[in-house]
Amino acid sequence: MSDDLLALLRANFPGLTLDVVQCTRLNSLVTVRRLALGRSLFVQGQSTTDFYGLAEGEIETRFTAADGAVSVLEHVQPPQLFGLAAFATGRPSAYEALARRPSRLWVFGPQAYRLLMDEVPGFARALLCEFAQRYAGTLGLLEASRHRSAAERFGLALSQLARERANGPPDAQGWQAIAATQADLAALANLSRQTVNELLRKAVAEGRLRSGYRRLWVRADAQSADKI
């Protein structure tokens, strides 16, 4: 089995083990797909026959409302699985997935899924745990969008970007660089760019944040929503 495919499975399902025969068979069933910058992997409302694991790059998942407003759900980073719900339920995807950077993906189709479910002990339990964690995360996003203030949503979005896009280790003063823009924050927090700009300026003035061209810096010891 390819090293990064094995790393993908271990990262998403700690403790999962496959024997040599299972590894060989899975490697023959999972295919590789490359996606150029800005290209969609699937669109909102599309039925999918696969789920995916990100080996390289970055995938943005986002939801478009009836009025055209776009809300970013997540910036998927390697090694991470996504597209599981639409695949497992057989229902159209509730969101769009597109490449924010040139990306390489593992494609898991029905045969690979059956192998994992039917022949790999512990996979079904691990998958159920993954769904439960994602459901809890979805509830958290719903609560934030409906009941949190703009400042709290800004802090949550900044914390998420810090986890997803940290650019190297903190510097000598403890500042962590993040590859993100004002537009990224606005989309993730579901706030207007004007509101985000005001919150950014306030955080910078208070010394809690630094801002530069397509970069933000936060203190490595303060990357939680209640401290940013």
Explained architecture:
This protein has 228 residues and is α+β, with helices and mostly antiparallel strands. It has helices spanning 3-12, 20-29, 84-89, 110-119, 123-147, 150-165, 182-189, 193-205, and strands at residues 31-35, 40-42, 51-64, 70-76, 80-82, 96-108, 175-178, 209-212, 215-219. The chain has two domains: 3-145, Sandwich (Jelly Rolls); 149-222, Arc Repressor Mutant, subunit A, CATH 1.10.10. The protein is built from eight helices and nine strands. Strands 1, 2, 3, 4, 5 and 6 form a six-stranded antiparallel sheet that branches. The protein has a three-stranded antiparallel sheet with strand order 7-9-8. A hairpin with a 5-residue loop joins strand 3 and strand 4 (70-76). It is globular and about 60 Å long.
Short précis:
This protein is α+β, with helices and mostly antiparallel strands and 228 residues long.
The class by helix and strand makeup works out as alpha+beta
The residue-averaged pLDDT reads 86
Helix content: 40-55%
CATH class of the largest domain: Mainly Beta
> In percent terms, what proportion of residues is strand?
25-35%
Note the overall shape. Answer: globular
Order of helices and strands: HHEEEEEHEHHHEHHEE
Number of separate domains: 2
How does the SSE layout of this entry go?
Elements: H1 3-12, H2 20-29, E1 31-35, E2 40-42, E3 51-64, E4 70-76, E5 80-82, H3 84-89, E6 96-108, H4 110-119, H5 123-147, H6 150-165, E7 175-178, H7 182-189, H8 193-205, E8 209-212, E9 215-219
Helix pairs in contact: 2-4, 6-7, 7-8
